[in-house]
Amino acid sequence: MKKAVLILSLILLASSCIMYLPYDESRNRGARAYEPPPPPVAAVYGEISISYIYDYLGNYGYWVYYSPYGHVWIPRGVGRHWRPYTHGRWVWTDYGWTWVSNYPWGWIPFHYGRWGWDNRLGWFWVPGVHWAPAWVIWRYGDLYIGWAPLPPGVEFVPGYGLRWTRRDIPVHFWVFVEGRRFHSSQLRSWILPPERNITIINYTVVRDRYTIRERNIVINDALSPQEIERITRRPVTRVKVNEVKQPEEVGSGINEVRVYRPTVKQEQATPGQVLKQEEVEQIVSRVENLRPENIEQVHRQESTLLERTQRMEIERLRRQAEEETRQAPPQEKQKKLLEIQSRLEELKKKHEQEKQELQKRQAEEKKVIRKDGLKRKTDEER
After folding, report:
1. What are the residues facing 146 on neighbouring strands?
2. Into how many domains does the chain fold?
3. How many CB atoms lie under 10 A from the CB of residue 155?
4. Alpha-carbon distance 11 to 107, whole Å?
5. pTM
6. For the segment 143-175, what is each residue's pLDDT rounded down to a tens digit?
7. Is residue 19 part of a domain?
8. Which of 227, 261, 284 corresponds to the end of one domain?
């Protein structure tokens, strides 16, 4: 009798734990070609502090006090030619366009905080506490796709989104590639020299929308998969996101991206080691990672990309001109020809300006390398 009572009690206890879930009719509906990404599961893998970020990134760069942002971080060994969101690749995930960095430290500065620029310090990172697949805005056109890091001062407000009073991005913030190269796993090899931005800005339009989902999850979907497919002529496949428990597990495979996105606890803290601005300026003034034996190769690649894309723009404009002239009424053809010639001359002027700016920068880099080489040789002789 006691055994029967015990069994009945266990059955009643189990039944009290069952939850009723209403039937979801949408499960049987045909899925659209590109449904909005479902809300990702909230992060459950721990919490880190600002102190942790200070210590972690201190192993890969320099902390310096920079008004009005407080302590900012500058990566070590990248050189002044470097730009954020260039060493890695883009993948389409449940979070939208997600940046997969090639750096071991990339899981922090490309997913939290903002990037700024100083003429003497170069690129610096301002810490932040909100995670995103990439804090960038986009430019999109028939020939090019570009992105730029959101600058300091663009605030994310939970429950609201981005608070951005001045929507102006410096020209040199933008990173551009030919649209057909957007999917490349070797994206860095196809990034156009920044001097090309003078012209490409006029070929593209800004996309700066972010989608905010439940639990204040940021989705980077200002560019749709259809738009990327149109310009790349390749299908966009959504890659699965697997959240990991340690930064060492971050990475990617053929069909997955491993993401570590802990909650960042705000606190009053300072980095363990803070350099003076003058010290960091001396460090970043060197063209790091560029040696005499490979500087020529880097410069040739930059010149090749510049010249090839400039020719592409000229050819495209000429094709457009032929079509417009052909369709123009006879009495308007001469006027159209003069207008097109003016557009071609203006484009060529911008192209020449880009070439001169590129040659100027490359000459300065070679000068710095020679200067550093002589200094090291003198130090060794001593």
Report:
1. 139, 176
2. 2
3. 15
4. 48
5. 0.83
6. 999 999 999 988 888 777 778 877 788 999 999
7. no
8. 284
